Amino acid sequence: MTMEEVFAYVREDLEGVEQVLMDSVQSDVQLIAEVGKHIFQSGGKRMRPLLTILSSRICDYQGSAHLSMAAVLELIHTATLLHDDVVDHADLRRGSRSVNYLWDSETSVLVGDFLFTRAFCMMVDHRDMGILDLMSRTCRQLAEGELLELTKSGDPHIEEDNHLAIVRNKTAVLISAACRIGALLGERAEWEAYLADFGLNLGMAFQLIDDVLDYEAKEQVLGKTIGKDLQEGKVTIPMIRTLERCTMAEKDRMVEIIRARSQDSRHLQEILETIQKYDGLEYAHSKARYYVDKAKTALTPLPDGQDKSALLVVAEFVAIRTN
Amino acid sequence: MTMEEVFAYVREDLEGVEQVLMDSVQSDVQLIAEVGKHIFQSGGKRMRPLLTILSSRICDYQGSAHLSMAAVLELIHTATLLHDDVVDHADLRRGSRSVNYLWDSETSVLVGDFLFTRAFCMMVDHRDMGILDLMSRTCRQLAEGELLELTKSGDPHIEEDNHLAIVRNKTAVLISAACRIGALLGERAEWEAYLADFGLNLGMAFQLIDDVLDYEAKEQVLGKTIGKDLQEGKVTIPMIRTLERCTMAEKDRMVEIIRARSQDSRHLQEILETIQKYDGLEYAHSKARYYVDKAKTALTPLPDGQDKSALLVVAEFVAIRTN
User: What is the ipTM of this complex?
Assistant: First the structure.
């Protein structure tokens, strides 16, 4: 199975999710409808909905609530992106101009709130206390993760473990929830922990690759500005690894550039060269590979078949993706 | 009964709510604990918790969940204030420096999100679908109200009905929910509509008086900067009324000042004089009185006694409050 085949396999469901997303931003308040349309037509990988759909299938869920629950995951994710963009003063998002840029930060904050309340309504409408328990805890962790990241912003002395705790809270727990919901929908309590574990590790890998791509990707492919993390004071694994291994003089120089939140491409180039010298990107890749392998192993107890194959393909894609 | 006697009557419960609020901002993320402490020690009227407590009592609720539900109302209210402060670039809140000012707008957005997720967890923990239904709908309306207000920001041609729809969505529905929860907790379905109606009308009056006080109150009493609404482009009832009645020349001049979002105290003075000429503040007061009377009437079917007296005192206080 290729990633294209995975998407073909769930196409109908993904289209259903798109419909739920578009419906969710219908409102008498025209601004909501406009901004919502812009957001959901700008694309996005729909990684979380994809995982919810596949997890529901492997747990043999026969209903249609996986579409709205997949949309809930995407709504929450999108709400955090809108608030992130305000925090980060981002101009680009998913290759399109950010809401923050096209409208203003006020709109970005309040539409984020609106999307979150829509997710809240949809979760309540589904009337499953297990899902409400999972999602309320997950949302709390997301908020803590974002605030922990803000606290550590621009700190060149952050340690790998601290950084990984941020990655776990701000990204991995939501991807874990996306998978776990499948077990809750399919009432396969015995598989819940495996899918949760799969998602958590996959989420770790996903964010690590995201951080690598911030240094590597072509702007038009990734849809974000390159080196943006650095300008925002986000010190990620390639940098943390390099700071642990480089000379005192190199470290001082890097710390200086990090603290200045330089927008100068020569500074970015200088940082990149030092990171390459100490194999910082390879190190991050190898950590991502470690998490992907852990994710795949977590699925071992689940039955073989097309759904499991698809989940494994998604996991592999996360490790090798270039955007 | 005086307002002081009402507070004495529910003191123990209100202290319980304070404890829940302080507990809710305990977190391994130190920033959350610090900001949370600042917010909840800065005071606030605790109008919503007060109403939840009194409504629970009149509905003869015997448990202790009214404390956490009262805290949920205050958490949601506080989250919206934090996001409002970012939208409005406010420096003061409840007479203290705003989070926005003391920390930064990023912190204000993300701590707002955190408080909201805490409320979400507490609601889910209570496991009452009726309350979850009510609160999810209410939160959606709040978000819509905020966005509607943003859309109309700086529009001198907004009509009274449109403005009242904003007031209803951004303020009154939450105060209505605070009262309605009492009926849900006490399982008094037959009184739910009355308490909802009481709260909705009280909420309308509360916001109208808030808008009047923006023109009238002493800065140290109200804890906000005077004339702030005007600088933020918020056109409220005293102004809407005046714009409907003044001469063309006066209207042009006021529109000019509104559009300029002037910070000049002479401009504020000029606006105030025109509003006074056309009894704009008296008009807003009379509308507030209308809603307070409607609120009081809504309680008619409920049993007389100390709880009802207290609710009526709160209603009267809203009409005559000076801060």
Answer: 0.95
Helix (H, G, I), strand (E, B) or coil at B164: helix
- The answer to whether A77 faces chain B, any CB pair under 8 Å, is no
Q: Kindly report, residue by residue over B263-288, the tens digit of the pLDDT.
A: 788 888 899 999 999 999 999 999 99
CATH number at residue A241: 1.10.600.10
Q: Is some CB atom of chain B closer than 8 A to the CB atom of A142? A: yes
Q: Which domain holds residue A238?
A: 3-320
**How far is A232 from chain B, CA to nearest CA, in Å?**
12
Distance from CA of A140 to the nearest CA of B (A): 5
Look up the pTM and report it: 0.95
Nearest by CB: B136 against A27, A28, A120? A120
Establish how many alpha carbons lie within 13 A of residue B133's alpha carbon, considering only the half-sphere containing its beta carbon: 8
Distance from A234 to chain B by nearest Cα, in Å? 14
The answer to whether the CB atoms of A118 and B140 lie below 8 A apart is: yes
DSSP 8-state secondary structure symbol assigned to residue A169: I
| Structural domains of chain A, count | 1
Which of A31, A34, A136, A170 is the mutation pick for testing B, counting most B CBs within 10 A?
Answer: A136
Closest CA to B224 of B83, B93, B115: B93
Cite the DSSP H helix spans in chain B. 3-9, 11-24, 30-41, 47-58, 65-88, 99-102, 105-126, 129-152, 160-167, 173-185, 189-216, 219-222, 228-231, 237-245, 248-260, 265-277, 280-298, 306-320
B285/B48 Cα distance (integer angstroms): 22
pLDDT < 70: residue spans in chain B: 88, 90-95, 217-226
Residue in chain B nearest A88 by alpha carbon: B106
Whole-angstrom distance between the N-terminal and C-terminal Cα of chain B?
20
Q: What is the DSSP track for A10-49?
A: THHHHHHHHHHHHHHT--SSHHHHHHHHHHHHS----HHH
